[in-house]
Design brief:
Mean pLDDT: 94
Helix content: 40-55%
Largest sheet: 8 strands, mixed
Strand order of the largest sheet: 1-2-4-3-5-6-7-8
Distance between the termini: 52 Å
Shape: globular
Amino acid sequence: MLSWQARTLRSLLSAKNFLSPKLGAMDVERARANLEMAGEVVRPIIHIDHIGVLANGVPGEWVIPAGTGSERVILYLHGGAYNAGSTRSHRALAANIAYAARARALTIDYRLAPEHPYPAALLDALSAYQWLLDSGIRPEQIAIAGDSAGGGLSVALLATLRERGLPMPAAAVVLSPWTDLSASGESWQENARSDYMINGPKLREAARLYLKDASPQTPLASPVYAKLEGLPPLLIQVGSDEVLLSDSLRLAENARLSGVDVTLEVWDGMQHVWQFAASLLPEARQAIEKIGKFIRERTDAKQAEGRPPVAA
């Protein structure tokens, strides 16, 4: 059963969705401003420090929850349909996940469409990951995580690491990932009325802005079409009412068929990236606790594999 907070938020989102125009050109600047505003409303559930960095030329910041003493690191890739979002808008979400995982998070301001279409975001994510390795952080200490477009970008990054023969992180977590920019999944139609967060026509326009001249089936833009063999353990969380539900279901199935250790969680009644509202929703905090446990267990197991045996 949904919490009263989730029911209340659902009602508010439903009313907002009903009053919002469904058609019309996409306003990128407004989308950016709205997401930044949302980032101001939500707050980390704990005290954090955030320190600006340049990761191989990519602007970013370290998000460090109070009391974090682990060497564990999360590379967090924000959502925003590839044309919005920032380290600032997703600071609280990255911080809450880092706290649950007993880690620090590196978030980045990857380049956005339409000014910088595919593959700019992927190249920036790759540069940031390489920067972590060059900084002496071992891959078994790293988890990659992202939401929505950042979730699809996370999977594309993993596929790129495999193609280039770079060390894989210990684990990856994707929240409501956007993995098929062709919008061909069944839930795009089946959940169109139950998803109060995503405007289907405008998300299709966002895909066109990001892809520019690339095909929607390009594997590293729509990683549901990518080869997934050799990827690290993967946790997928998605709401049952999302238009992107199919993107998660198909990603999980393809990953399993490729031999990837996949954990798929479909949360009943949840909207797109509900984890964003951890300061408001019990379900968001519960989901983040599961994410933290997943990252802790996978990084600990990976580091244990690399330790020499204890002498008898």
